Amino acid sequence: MLSIKNLQAKIGDKQILNGINLEVKAGEVHAIMGPNGSGKSTLASVLAGREDYEVVQGEVEFQGQNLLDMAPEDRARAGVFLAFQYPVEIPGVSTINFMKTAVNQILKSRGQQPLDAVSFLKIMKEKMKLVDIDQSLLNRSLNEGFSGGEKKRNEIFQMAMLEPKLAILDETDSGLDIDALKIVAHGVNKLRTKSNAVIVVTHYQRLLDYIIPDFVHVLYKGKIVKSGTKDLALELEAKGYDWIKDEVAVA
Amino acid sequence: MSVTVKEKNASAEVKNLIDKSVSLNPAVISIRKEALEAFQKLGLPDKKAEEYRHTPITSLLQRDFDYDALLSKPSDLDPKEYFIPSVKGNIIVLINGVYSSAHSSVISPADEVHITNLSEALAGGDTMALEHFAKYADVKSDAFTAWNTASWNHGVFIRIPENAIVQTPILIYHIHDARAGQVMSASRNLFVIGRHSEVTIIEKFDSAGLSHHFSNTVTEAVVSENAHLELYSIQNDAGSRYQVGLTHIHQAGSSLVNTFTFTLNGKLIRNNLQLSLDGEGIESHMFGLYLITDDTVADNHTTVDHRKPNSFSNEIYKGIMDGNSKGVFNGKIYVRPQAQKTNAFQSNKNILLSDKATVNTKPQLEIWADDVKCSHGCTTGQLDSEALFYLQTRGINKETARAMMLYAFAIEVLNNVKHAELKTYIDQLVSERLHTNF
Ligand SMILES: Nc1ncnc2c1ncn2[C@@H]1O[C@H](COP(=O)(O)OP(=O)(O)OP(=O)(O)O)[C@@H](O)[C@H]1O
Ligand SMILES: [Mg+2]
C-alpha cells in the first residue's frame, strides 16, 4: 500500500530525513518509535504533504500513485490521514462544519453524491459514539480551548469520519489518560480492516498494548535504524535508546 | 501672448461649491457662516495633516474631479435595485444627496417614527431639530465637517418619541447617479432617539454609472437616557466612490448603541465615527469589517469619548486586504478625569492577502482617570499556513480552506448583527466576497 524509498527531506538548510525506507502493506500496523527530534513528525508531515518541507530525494508510492506529486487534499482524498501531534486551533471554524465540507469534497472527488444534512448527522452520531466525544465539543471552534485529550480524541473522530486507507497517528496517545487511551485505541481497532493500514508514532508501549503492531521501527537521526516485531517495543521500554545509539555509532 | 496656467486647488473649488449652494434655511444661516469660516481657515487636509496622513483624499479630489462639470440636473434613477430585498422597513432615498420623497415610504405609525427632510424640519421650526442640529459635529476640527455644515441642503431627520420600541427598521439609501457625469453631494442627517426608545437604522451607499463621485455626509445622532440605537452602514459601491462620512453619536445615561460599519467596495472610503458617552451606565459597541481589494482605500477613524463614570465601550474592527488595497484604522479612546470605573476595550485585527496590500493601524488611548479598565490590541498577519495545511489534510481544497478561514475571521463581527434578515444579507455579501461557496 505504501512504499517509501530513500526518502530525504529538509526544511530550510536543515536536512531532517536522511533516507527512509519503509514498506507498509494493507492490514498492517506499523509502530514508529525513536528519540525526540529524530524526525518522526517530519516524516508524517511529508507524507501528508506539508509544503514547508522540501523533499530532496526519494520516492513515496501510495496505492500505485506517486504521493509526493499530490496536493495535501488529494492525498487525503486518496485515503491518507494524519492525526496531528499538535492539532491546530482554528477560531471560528467548528469541527462539524469543516467535517461536512471535508466529507463532501472527498465524496465529490470520487464522483459520489454529497451527503445531505440528515445522513451526515447520522454518520456523525455513530462516529461520535465510537470515540465517546460530545457534540458540544464538535460545535465549538476547532480545538480552541480544547484540553490536550480532547484534541486527540477529536483527531480520531475525524479519522473515523474520513475512513482512511492509511492512518498516520502522530503521538495520539500523548496527553491521554488511561480511559481515553483505551477509547482511542478501541476506536482505531474498530476501524481496522484487511484493506487499511495504520502507522502509529509513539514513545510508549502502553498504546501498543491496545493497538498491537505487526512491526516496530526505530527512527533515529532521520533514518530507520532498527526494525522488529512488537518485542522490539518492549525491549525499548525496558532499555531506552542508548544501546541503539551505540549500535549506530559503531556502524 | 502670455499663457496663464490655471492651478487647480481643491480647497478653492470647494469654497466655490459652498458659495453656490444657496441655503434653504434661514434658521441655520449663522451656523453655515461659521462653518464656512472654519472651512476657509482649515482648508482641505494636505498630506501632512495627521488625521488624513494615510488617506490622500484631497489630492484625489484635486486630481479626479472637474468642478466646473459636476452634475446638477435631477436624476431619473430608479433606486429600487439598490434596496435590500429581504429587509422590509421604512425607506428613505437620497439621490445625489437630494431627499426623494417620491421614492421614500414610511410605514411605521406616526406616533412611533417621525421622518422628514432635515431642512424642512429646521425651516418648519421643529424644536428637537433646532435644539440638536450642529451641536455635536465639530466644524472647527475637520474641514469636511465644515464643508458639509456650510453647504448641505438635504438630509434625513428622524425623531423617535419616548417609549417607542420601533420594530420596523429605517433604511436610508444614499445613491449617486454618476451615469451622465461626476457627482458631489453633501447631505446632513439628524437622528434624535427619545428616552426608553429603540430603533434600528440602516444606511447603504451605492451608485450608478462610471464617473467619479464624492459624498460628504455628516450624521448627528442623539441617544437619550435608556434608549437603544442599532446603526448600520453598508458600503459596497462598485462604482468610483470617494466618500468622507462623519457620524457623531451623543449618548445619555444608560443608553445602548451598537454601530456596524461594513466596507466592501469603493475607491476611497473614510469613516469618521465618534461616540460621546455623556452619562453613566452607558454601553457602546462599535463593530467594523472591511473586506477590500483592487485599489480600494478603507479608512476608519473612530473616537470614543468617556466623559462620565461607569460606562462600557467595546470596539472590534477587522479587515481583510487583498490586491492593492489599503486599510487604515485609528482608534481613539478618551477617558476624562471624572470618568472613573470606565471599561474600554478595543481590538483591530487584519489579514493581508497580497504583497501589495497594506494596513496602518493605530490605537490612541488618552486616559486621565486612574480607576479604569482599558485594553487594546491590534494584529496584522497572513493566513495561518499551518491551519490551512490542517484543513487540506482533511481533503478540503486550498481555496475552500482559505475561504473557510477568512469567513471564520469575519464571523466575529457578523455574529453581532441582530436583525436576522440583515444578517443573512450581509453574510451573503461577505460570502460572495470571500468566495465561500462551500
Ligand atoms: N521548521 C523547522 N525549522 C528547523 N528545524 C525544524 C523545523 N521543524 C522541525 N525541525 C527539526 O527537525 C527535527 C525533527 O523534528 P520532528 O518534529 O520530526 O521530531 P520528532 O521525532 O517528531 O520528535 P518528538 O518525539 O519530540 O515529537 C528536530 O530537530 C526539529 O527541531
Ligand atoms: Mg513528533
Note down, in words, how this protein is organized.
Chain A has 251 residues and is of the alpha/beta class. Chain A is built from ten helices and twelve strands. Chain A has helices at 40-48, 72-78, 95-109, 117-131, 135-139, 148-162, 178-191, 205-210, 230-239, 242-250, and strands at 2-11, 14-24, 29-33, 54-62, 65-66, 80-83, 90-94, 141-142, 166-170, 197-201, 215-220, 223-228. In chain A, the strands form three sheets. A six-stranded mixed beta sheet of chain A has the order 6-9-10-3-11-12, sandwiched between helices. A four-stranded antiparallel beta sheet of chain A has the order 2-1-4-5, covered by helices on one side. A two-stranded antiparallel sheet of chain A has the order 7-8. Chain A starts with a strand and ends with a helix. The model of chain A has no long low-confidence stretch (mean pLDDT 93). With 438 residues, chain B is an alpha/beta fold. Chain B has two domains: 5-278, no CATH class; 383-438, no CATH class. In chain B, the strands form two sheets. A ten-stranded mixed beta sheet of chain B has the order 2-1-5-8-10-12-14-16-18-20, with helices on one face. In chain B, strands 3, 4, 6, 7, 9, 11, 13, 15, 17 and 19 form a ten-stranded mixed beta sheet that branches. In chain B, helix 2 (29-42) packs antiparallel against helix 6 (143-151) and helix 8 (398-414) runs antiparallel to helix 9. Chain A binds chain B through residues 48-52, 71-73, 75-77, 80-82, 84, 87-93, 97-99, 101-103, 105-106, 109, 141, 158, 162, and chain B through 384-387, 389-398, 400-401, 404-405, 407-409, 411-412, 438. Magnesium ion is lined by residues 40-41, 85, 170-171 of chain A.
